[in-house]
Design goal:
Length: 148
């Protein structure tokens, strides 16, 4: 059975949503993809986001019908868990933190907790620095590279 690494959902607009494409960026820039034996979908140049998520999922599943998918995304959590990276069995729920209903992605997931949930259980874009997001993305990239 194949294992496919899906970069999760985000866009190149800045802030926390850059964690998924940021992961792909580090994988590409570091040359890690030449050593990485699994396909990676979603980068800063070619992100998976709310407008293309359905066609992206269809393409990935069609290209790898027996694949197991690992989705990577940013998420919200308690203030004390900001900066944690969690590995989970089960899919990510892209867009949940900003109130969007998008399809679940992945058999397994890695999430980087980038900010706290505000009073309305929504993402507030308060104090998220791009350097922090890229640091999480680099840790995830290097961890995946070293684990394969």
């Amino acid at each position: 059975m194949k294992h496919i690494f899906d970069d999760g959902v985000g866009h190149g607009g800045g802030g926390a949503v850059n964690l998924p494409p940021g992961y792909g960026r580090f994988a590409h820039q570091s040359g890690a993809l030449s050593d990485f034996k699994y396909p990676v979908y979603g980068t800063l140049d070619n992100p998976i986001h709310a407008l293309n998520i359905y066609e992206s999922i269809e393409h990935i599943k069609k290209s790898h019908p027996k694949g197991n998918f690992l989705a990577i995304d940013a998420c919200l959590g308690s203030k004390s868990s900001i900066g944690n990276i969690q590995i989970r069995e089960g899919p990510i729920l892209p867009g949940k933190g900003v109130g969007k209903k998008l399809p679940q992605i992945g058999h397994y997931s890695i999430v980087g907790i980038v900010d706290k949930i505000d009073e309305n259980n929504r993402f507030s874009f308060n104090n998220v620095r791009l350097s922090f997001i890229l640091e999480l993305a680099e840790i995830i990239s290097l961890s995946l590279l070293l684990s394969t």
